[in-house]
């Protein structure tokens, strides 16, 4: 049987008979303060700072990026006054010519016409053959230039014709197909000259007021066509 040391009993007895008023909690280490709670995504200030840092780095990268190789764009100087003025005058004359050529046939095609009889009185041959005659309706009669399907062989004959009115300068002899060939090509050429007017005037080379200058060219072309239609009425 094992022997129990003599001191064991004394120590155990002393431990058992310790004063009861001793609190073991007094000698425990103090509890640590709770750490502040942080959201999983951080605060709003930290988020804005991160976004600002990203944008600043992107701007620095863009500034350090080398320029793209290539030919530098040449600045187009405004057109000189004399060539621009000459181009405007030439285009204006062409616009008036094509508008005046298309206006009577266009009015007759849309139904604005007086039907009557044209008596061919004279014809001229050559580079630009032409005939004249007396156009007669039930209300008025007038000497007019004859256009359309009329030749020297028709001299002295009476042919059905149409004119825009008593103030017309010409009468047309022929069908609707011939009328279309008289005004459609003229209007196409009119539009082409209008585009040429914009380029010749130098409006496309302006850096300030470019849209206004281009619009002014188109307004001028429209005014010429309107005037031609008004005179041919």
Brief account:
Keywords: Membrane, Transmembrane, Transmembrane helix. The protein is α+β, with helices and mostly antiparallel strands and 233 residues long.
The level of helicity is 40-55%
Total beta strand runs: 5
Q: What average pLDDT do the residues reach?
A: 78
N-C termini distance: 147 Å
The largest sheet, given as strand count, sense and whether it forms a barrel, is: 5 strands, mixed
**Low-pLDDT windows of residues:** 7-18
- Approximate shape: elongated
Structural overview:
With 233 residues, this protein is an alpha+beta fold. The chain has a domain of 152 residues. The protein contains five helices and five strands; from the N terminus they run αααβββββαα. The protein has a five-stranded mixed sheet with strand order 4-1-2-3-5, covered by helices on one side. α4 packs antiparallel against α5. About 5% of the residues have low confidence. Keywords: Membrane, Transmembrane, Transmembrane helix.
Which terms summarize this structure?
single chain, alpha+beta, 5-stranded mixed beta sheet, 5 helices, 5 strands, 47% helix, 15% strand
């Amino acid at each position: 049987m094992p022997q129990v040391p003599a001191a064991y009993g004394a120590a155990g007895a002393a431990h058992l008979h310790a004063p009861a008023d001793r609190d073991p909690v007094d000698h425990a280490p103090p509890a640590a303060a709770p750490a502040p709670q942080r959201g999983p995504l951080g605060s709003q200030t930290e988020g804005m700072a991160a976004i600002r840092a990203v944008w600043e780095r992107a701007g620095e990268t863009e500034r350090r990026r080398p320029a793209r190789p290539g030919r530098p764009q040449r600045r187009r100087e405004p057109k000189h006054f004399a060539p621009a003025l000459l181009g405007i005058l030439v285009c204006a004359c062409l616009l008036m010519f094509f508008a005046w050529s298309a206006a009577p046939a266009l009015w007759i095609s849309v139904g604005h016409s007086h039907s009557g009889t044209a008596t061919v009185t004279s014809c001229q041959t050559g580079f630009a053959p032409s005939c004249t005659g007396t156009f007669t309706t039930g209300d008025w009669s007038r000497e007019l230039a004859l256009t359309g399907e009329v030749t020297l062989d028709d001299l002295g004959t009476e042919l059905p014709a149409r004119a825009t009115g008593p103030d017309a300068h010409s009468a047309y002899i022929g069908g609707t197909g011939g009328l279309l060939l008289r005004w459609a090509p003229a209007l196409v050429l009119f539009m082409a000259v209008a585009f040429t007017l914009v380029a010749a005037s130098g409006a496309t080379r302006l850096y300030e007021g470019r849209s206004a200058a281009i619009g002014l060219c188109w307004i001028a072309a429209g005014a010429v066509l309107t005037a031609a239609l008004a005179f041919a009425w």
